[in-house]
Amino acid sequence: xxxxxxxxxxxxxxxxxxxxxxxxxxxxxxxxxxxxxxxxxxxxxxxxxxxxxxxxxxxxxxxxxxxxxxxxxxxxxxxxxxxxxxxxxxxxxxxxxxxxxxxxxxxxxxxxxxxxxxxxxxxxxxxxxxxxxxxxxxxxxxxxxxxxxxxxxxxxxxxxxxxxxxxxxxxxxxxxxxxxxxxxxxxxxxxxxxxxxxxxxxxxxxxxxxxxxxxxxxxxxxxxxxxxxxxxxxxxxxxxxxxxxxxxxx
Length: 250
Known about the structure:
The structure is a single chain. By secondary structure, this protein is mainly β. The chain is 12% helix and 35% strand. The chain has one helix spanning 2-31; strands spanning 40-46, 58-62, 66-72, 82-86, 99-103, 109-110, 115-121, 127-132, 143-146, 148-149, 157-161, 175-179, 185-186, 196-200, 211-215, 227-233, 239-244, 247-248.
């Protein structure tokens, strides 16, 4: 009976050792972080001043297969500039392709430096975000993506250069914008040694009113032919220069 008991105990010890080995293997698999691989790429889009930009559609352009391998974000950025890309298990691994995060080509925004993104596959053949920009590995944190507008801004500064009949710059001359009706608008400073001076809109200019760029009354110089200047207002009621001479802003 004693020998049988010893054999049973020995068998239980062996079984415990075997189970312990499997348990140890199980702990190692869990510790590898397979279940924690990030499958969502989090992005916050900001302008060059750090303000969030909404309504920007992002995508991941394939550098190997271009449009055929590119991946689109499901929605454009929200009011806080944020958007997310969710892996769909069709992304190619980093040994096959490298993606670039950027706005779609039809967007009003562009970027100087697209963010490089790579993917990898876990033990269950599910894809996850391996790297994103400087994050190697990518840990699931939000990355900041800087964009700039490619829509021309309305000009609010009128740049003038005064020169004599021989084409030489004329300095020390005060210029003004004389309207067909209303208040005259003065340039803040006289022309410099290069003959240049600038007028900055102050939102008091009359929309649609015709102004003439010329020297102030009493100046020792007179314009051979004054330049006609008109102003318009944008959707925020700020004035801008619509036309100056033969040059139109639109």
